[in-house]
Design goal:
about 180 residues, mainly alpha, Cytochrome Bc1 Complex, Chain D, domain 2
């Protein structure tokens, strides 16, 4: 099967380097083909490896609605003051309350009064899905910006927007800091 026919079979254009995967029994791999295939593999690996720190650091792309994947804008509640932690979170996706004992204690109280009924005391889920570990329904909860977006905006199930319920962004960040202590 030709490369174009193979690409059409999967409804995609032929990729550079597709011929690297083609097995030709009667031909040896030439130096030129070996070099071209090796360089395309190295380039693909480099792109993926370089992308990891951005995703781990809380890429701003994580601030997307779980409902429609649209970019999110975070509005303050009436009378809410933007705290340094909330400003930092929106700027670079870093939750300044991670590891802060006082914020975690506050987060535990907030979690107990707002989240425990659906997600359970240990975050593994009851009526709602698990929010700890790797087997989560919404992969967004694996990052702090993603979990923030879901708490702020809600999810496609029964999870309603806590922003619309009147919760402040600072309180959401404290809940997230507490939930991360459950994820062991």
């Amino acid at each position: 099967m030709s490369l174009e026919a193979d690409a059409n079979k999967y409804h995609r254009p032929p990729f550079a380097g597709d011929d690297c995967l083609e097995q030709v029994k009667s031909e040896f791999m030439t130096y030129d083909r070996f070099y071209r295939c090796g360089m395309s593999t190295i380039a693909a690996l480099a792109v993926n490896v370089l992308a990891i720190p951005f995703a781990v650091a809380g890429d701003l792309a994580d601030f997307k609605s779980s409902l429609d994947n649209s970019p999110m804008i975070f509005e303050l509640q009436s009378g809410e003051v933007e705290t340094p932690a909330a400003k930092k979170n929106q700027g670079n996706g870093v939750n300044g309350y991670r590891g802060d004992a006082d914020a975690i204690a506050d987060g535990k109280k907030l979690y107990t009064s707002n989240c425990i009924v659906c997600h359970g005391a240990d975050g593994t889920g009851k009526m709602g899905p698990t929010i700890v570990g790797k087997d989560v329904v919404y992969k967004q909860v694996l990052t702090d910006p993603g979990m923030f977006a879901i708490i702020y905006d809600g999810a496609s199930s029964a999870m309603q927007s806590f922003h619309r319920r009147g919760m402040k962004q600072d309180e959401m960040l404290r809940i997230i800091a507490y939930v991360r202590t459950l994820d062991k």
